[in-house]
Amino acid sequence: MARINKYPIDSDPSKSDLLLGSDQGGATRNYTLDVLGKSLTYFNNLGFPMVAYWFDAKMTGGRQKGTLSFATASNDEVAFNGLTSIIASKYNYGDTVNTRVNLIDSWVSTEITITSIEDPNRFGIYSLDTLTNLAGDSNFYTLAITYKSGNGNLIKDQYYTITSKKTDLNYTHYQASAATTWSINHNLGKNPSVTIVAATGDQVQGEVEYIDANNVTVTLSSANSGKAYLN
Asked: What's the predicted TM-score (pTM) here?
């Protein structure tokens, strides 16, 4: 057998190319680049700000670290567009020692995406509304989510990632009846900028009073109906 450095370099590798190695039991194995690439994602050895999970639909052996599941055993396939909550482990798949709590906590009030590692064209995009510890098992969170868009289903015994994208929260208030005072409950958790557009389509000025991080009052010089855009 020639020395490794004597073999020609493959400048155009494909997913089916083989690498020689040993499994954890010491047996010699061939590994495709495709399998190795997916494994790096399963175990999140790439260092990306995500958490990888195995979808355990039936929970036959109980709820396991590193899994996604529901409150009770589910169908083998669950449509992304039907999800309103999901239970997620605080641990990445394959890691039962180091939690991802700090990362997961940062997802609250952001847009999250659940994506199939096997087929990235299967995904669901959601706003993460609340995050609570699962009653009776502190190794898991219950994620209350609102569906925004996506494609396909969660399929049992397959792998998924959850990633987060912070978006600039906004709210549109509809003022149906003409009034000089508009009381707006926006629930944005911040003091947003406010733009008033009257029913005529004209932008009008008003005095903005921030009651708290979720409520604002706008006072106009004359009674108007229309919309308020808060960003």
From this structure: 0.65
